[in-house]
Design brief:
mainly alpha, Potassium Channel Kv1.1, Chain A, three-stranded mixed sheet, elongated, ubl conjugation pathway, SKP1/BTB/POZ_sf
Length: 589
């Protein structure tokens, strides 16, 4: 008889084939007498190669099966109906024994077999080969690492304890430990649809931690999404990779913090570029907002869509910070314990301090964009204004960078952006830079000079109670109601940009006051300081003007909302600790 399988002709004997294949029996019986020696098979799974395996088995020849051809042979045997009812010990039975005793017991063979099932659908699915592969792979990935005895691919760096460098091992014998994520790289060979089913099966078994699942998703995305680590490449199939990103988002573990914020932000960048659905974007935004303290400045630099005037998409970061604020207000302080343990000096507000520093760095970076509007800068700065942080140096750097790159902004805009900063929270180095900064409004320069001088005087006297009354009233947290008075200086004068001569005069006046306060420590010297303060500061730097400036700043909301009378005390305490080194300086220049 002649069997046509696709374009290949097989010249075979009827008896060996018909004795083992019920389907061939039916096909031969159905053919007419004129054409009884030739049959056509067009839809056999696995094609001519799989049919050849079945034909050889019918002739009693040795058949070589392996992970690459076993599924095709099994599907072809099912097509030919090579059941036990036709003959005992038929091909279907023997292949099933081989699968269960060898293939499904091997880690890498199970993965190879799963890969071959895709081209044999729906046969491989109906014969439960796919489900058996999934269960085999998931069971092995979920097993205790001490029981892993098979080979696997692992090229990532291992931690010291995983390399056997842990102190508990004897130097003479350091057995290499199996890492928890030993299975991650091998599964990267799977296409996304099969990978999704494997990970879902692993998660169902519930024996693999969320952080290992997160590491697996990260490794798979790096392998499968071109340019993912450096920004998405534009020359590829958008539909294919959009589906990949959406699937990865769907597979993310539900536990908070098990996936790095950096990975989530790179996923968000890819989702925006690939125009993924709103559901996936919103889910990523929600997760990132919860983990925003872990982010880095480079993670937040997401390019603006084509056609936008700005370089980076600031609206995304604005939404993330707002989401973080909302989440923080709804979360108990205990949820921030993991941050507190990393940075115990920050206390319970560690996450807010970290986010404030992050946004300060981000603002300094995007401020260099000449098309970046001031309104977005201020809005982002105001979103974190309620976050109490020990230093405003980062914010000052961002403001200075913006003023440098946007020299044409108006006086009112300079005043608006400088309202974000609290001069009392600038370090000595930042103060020295600020008093020489010709880009700042005169009001800000005077405030910086004054508070730096007050701190130096307080350090020299070691007690604010010995300071002159008019100066003591202007300390952060002090009462300045008694020192308010009208002056001849207009608001426009204070908002103007100071000249080099103005700054030099201010520095000279206050340097004289500092020298006087550092030269002696007795009562006579203190009274002399008070006289100097009363006479030399008369005019541009007289104490009443400072009082007016400070009270005006409070009335216009320049002080951060977090700077209450309670927080002033903590600021003073911190400043007192840091002032011994400042007392040794004899000038601001």
């Amino acid at each position: 008889m002649v069997v046509n399988v696709g374009d290949v002709k097989f010249y075979l004997h009827k008896f060996p084939l018909l004795s083992k294949s019920a389907r061939l029996q039916k096909l031969v019986a159905a053919t007419n007498d004129a054409n009884g020696d030739e049959i056509h098979i067009q839809d056999i799974p696995g094609g001519p190669a799989a049919f050849e395996v079945c034909a050889k088995f019918c002739y009693g020849m040795t058949v070589t099966l392996n992970a690459y051809n076993v599924v095709a042979a099994r599907c072809a045997a099912e097509y030919l109906e090579m059941y036990e009812t036709a003959e005992k010990g038929n091909l279907i039975y023997k292949i099933d024994v081989f699968l269960n005793s060898s293939i499904f017991r091997s880690w890498k063979d199970s993965i190879i077999v799963l890969l071959t099932t895709k081209s044999l659908l729906p046969w491989s699915e109906e014969l439960k080969v796919v489900s058996h592969c999934l269960d085999s792979i998931a069971s092995k990935a979920s097993i205790d690492t001490s029981k892993v005895e098979w080979s696997y691919t692992y090229n990532r760096k291992k931690i010291a304890s995983e390399n056997g460098n842990s102190p508990q091992w004897n130097d003479a014998r350091k057995p290499q430990m199996v890492p928890k994520d030993w299975w991650v790289e091998d599964l990267c060979e799977l296409p996304i649809d099969l990978y999704k089913r494997v990970i879902a099966t692993i998660k169902t078994k519930g024996r693999v931690s969320g952080d290992v699942i997160g590491e697996a998703l990260n490794a798979y995305t790096l392998r499968r999404l071109p340019g993912f680590s450096k920004g998405v490449n534009q020359n590829f199939d958008f539909v294919k990779y959009r589906s990949l990103v959406e699937t990865i988002v769907w597979l993310l573990p539900t536990e908070k913090g098990v996936v790095s914020c950096s990975f989530l932000l790179r996923l968000l960048r890819a989702a925006i570029f690939l125009d993924c659905g709103e559901t996936e974007r919103n889910e990523l935004m929600r997760r990132i907002a919860q983990q925003l303290p872990e982010a880095t400045m480079n993670d937040l630099l997401i390019r603006a869509p084509p056609g936008e005037a700005t370089v980076f998409d600031v609206d995304i970061v604005q939404n993330l910070v707002e989401g973080f604020v909302t989440h923080s207000s709804q979360t108990e302080p205990v949820d921030n314990e993991f941050l507190g343990s990393r940075s115990p000096k920050f206390g319970p507000d560690a996450s807010k301090v970290l986010v404030a520093k992050l946004i300060d760095c981000y603002l300094a970076e995007i401020a260099q964009d000449p098309n970046f509007p001031l309104s977005k800068f201020v809005n982002l700065g105001e979103t974190i204004a309620s976050f109490s942080r020990p230093s405003h140096d980062g914010l000052y750097r961002a403001i200075d960078m913006y003023l440098k790159e946007h020299p044409g902004i108006s006086k009112s805009e300079r005043k608006r952006i400088c309202k974000l900063m609290d001069c009392r929270k600038l370090s000595a180095e930042a103060c020295m830079h600020a008093v020489q900064n010709e880009r700042l409004p005169l009001r800000v320069v005077v405030q910086v000079l004054f508070f730096e001088q007050v701190r130096a005087t307080a350090s020299a006297e070691n007690s604010t109670s010995d300071l002159p009354g008019s100066i003591r009233a202007l300390l952060p947290g002090g009462s300045h109601g008694s020192s308010r008075s009208t002056t001849t200086n207009t608001e426009e004068d204070w908002d103007s940009v100071p000249t080099a001569d103005d700054i030099k005069a201010l520095k000279g006046e206050l340097a004289t006051l500092r020298l006087g306060s550092n030269d002696s420590g007795n009562e006579a010297a203190k009274s002399e300081v008070e006289k100097v303060a009363a006479s030399r500061m008369k005019g541009l730097v007289m104490s009443k003007i400072f009082s007016k400036l400070w009270s005006s700043k409070e009335r216009h909301g320049e002080i951060s909302s977090s700077d209450t009378s309670d927080s002033h005390g903590s600021v003073n305490a911190e400043e007192t600790k840091s002032t011994p080194s400042r007392s040794r300086r004899h000038s601001l220049s």
